[in-house]
Amino acid sequence: MQQTFGYEPQLSWKISSIKPAPASGLAQVDVILATPQGQQLTRFYITQDGEHAIVGEILPFGAKPFDPAKKKLEKGITGPSRGPKDAPATIVEFGDLQCPACKAAQPTIEALIAAEPSARFVFQNFPLEMHNWAAKGAAYADCVGQASNDAFWKFIAKTYETQGDITAENADEKLTALADGAGVKGADIAACASTPTAKAHVDASTALGKSVNVTGTPTLFINGRSIGNVANVPSDTLKVLVEFAAKQGK
Question: How many domains does the chain have?
Answer without folding.
Answer: 2
